[in-house]
């Protein structure tokens, strides 16, 4: 039995079926089958070109989407079903992500055995021949004839699942079993490609722990796409009649309302392709009214779940109001739509429901009152008000821009101040990274040069007392940028900043490139979304110097950022502290973090995924902390744990076994405090390697990351230590001691020689002498060979 059945269904709309099948062929996934329910001759011929690996179910022209989905599912043997419309797409690696996540859920649920062992799902098929589930399974024991097993009320076509009556949601089986896996997605239109959705934040907030919809009713607000709901096969068969509808958004909502538990995958694993409306048949009155019918059919599935009904009601009213306001309906159709929508809004309004404030509340009130004429008048008044406000705002912006531009131009006409240096880091977030290390050394070697930091308004209060700084966009900001001799940044200055001939721009960068950067991102849409490459080239043309930590970086920067700057192969100034810190510094850092003496501190610092909207832990941190034991503390550096939901890590944080260091600065201090680093593809590995301490790579999605983001070398073949592909492997690396064995040390030594090439503790000095004091390359302190360097003592050494 395959883990996953990918069911592609529908006609070959505008030729897009070819793309999705080519994508699946290019990234085959073991334990996954592909079934094409091909509607029409063109779709059949396209699908048959991919046989025999692809199972083709030919269907006549005119077959509806619901019937096509059902036909594909009837041939499916997988434990999980992923329905993919033939017009849509699958980002590279998405099927692998789904297969791995569902296997993880199955293992956690204890639903499936291994190689025929007890608990094997059995030969579930469309005729209801139910296999035997384990006692922990959510669908009970199915009788051989497909009728319900013990306590089941399923029909002859299901697999012995507990029937869902629609009144109380899914009531059968063990609470742990997940019925639906929710995915993030991107949207492609006839004009744009792979635009991220807004669903990512909801999915990130839900976390990776399975949960009931009652506990996260806000998930109903996810875009209703059936392709972003991966269904357990037994769940599909238990509710096939309800889910077999041509109203795909209705089916997507129904799947959530019927599910016992859901889980989230906060990664874009589906591409919703929106076809140009002018290429589709025009909508008729029945199409408009179907939206009201959809919600009328969904409310019975919500039963008496108050929170769920409240969210569903808000969604219904929002969709009805938007459809009425935005769709260009004939007046007679619009009046009838408004009448029916008004009746539904009144009939389904939850007890005690409060309308939203402001204009949206007025719209809701008018809808409930059935006040069609007043609503149209309200619309007309709002349009006039918006048009007037837009005109005023546009004029103000134009005047303000002209004033600022005039002031900036006047400032540019004044001489450059040879003793003024502007520093900024990470898009004006504060004093950190390479610019901070350079500024500190500048105060020591060239105190006559005055530093001014660019810091955003929200972060200005966090600056050390007395720090001279400017707020972006202010008059002093533009005056300071115009008059500065030196401009130092670890990203780029705004496009509007003018490169004066006698000013010096220093690009410090903020990492060693594993992932593709700059122009090399052009072939990777997930990484390049929203990038203006022409503007990027204009920005890099302003660079005078580019700082590098190793020859690999030098070569990659010159390739990704082709311009006439001078490469400074001096090392990263921020890494100097790894050679200057003492045992007392290491122990002080651990004390500030609250790491108890004698404990092993492991810094977990994953990187950002371009195909994710937010941070979701890729590890079950609570389970990992339990496996590693009381003597290990995890320093977790991430944006947040589980958003606004209750975190299962709270107790562990109180015990000191997990410490959230997401907002702790500087990160170099975290490195000094840690006995080991666990990361995936973050450039922190290159910096941490300077300490010559163990590094473990957790690469559970390497193939996906490599494909979607693009990389410069194979980290799996040139890792700085042990590599884990699963959480279990990661735990075993630490429990067995392999994280610091001889093999790990050899891998780390090779990695250090290649990527810590210029980092010897004097990088900032070389930069200051070369750039600010004008010394020649020959006069600078030479780079000390790697084998002759002495990094800061490890915590164990510092405590001795």
Explain this structure to me?
With 800 residues, the protein is α/β, with parallel strands linked by helices. It folds into four domains: 272 residues, Alpha-Beta Complex (Spore Coat Polysaccharide Biosynthesis Protein SpsA, Chain A), CATH 3.90.550.10; 83 residues, no CATH class; 161 residues, CDP-glycerol glycerophosphotransferase, N-terminal domain (Rossmann fold); 166 residues, 3-Layer(aba) Sandwich (Rossmann fold), CATH 3.40.50.12580. Helices cover 39% and strands 14% of the residues. It is built from 29 helices and 21 strands. Helix 22 links the parallel strand 17 and strand 18. Helix 13 runs parallel beside helix 15 and helix 20 crosses helix 23. The longest helix is centred in the middle third of the chain and has 41 residues. The two termini are 56 Å apart. About 10% of the residues have low confidence.
Number of strands: 21
Number of domains: 4
Query: What is the 3D shape?
Result: globular
How much is the radius of gyration in Å? 30 Å
Poorly predicted ranges: 112-174, 639-651
* Percent helix: 25-40%
Annotated CATH homologous superfamily of the largest domain: Spore Coat Polysaccharide Biosynthesis Protein SpsA, Chain A
Terminal Cα separation, in Å?
Answer: 56 Å
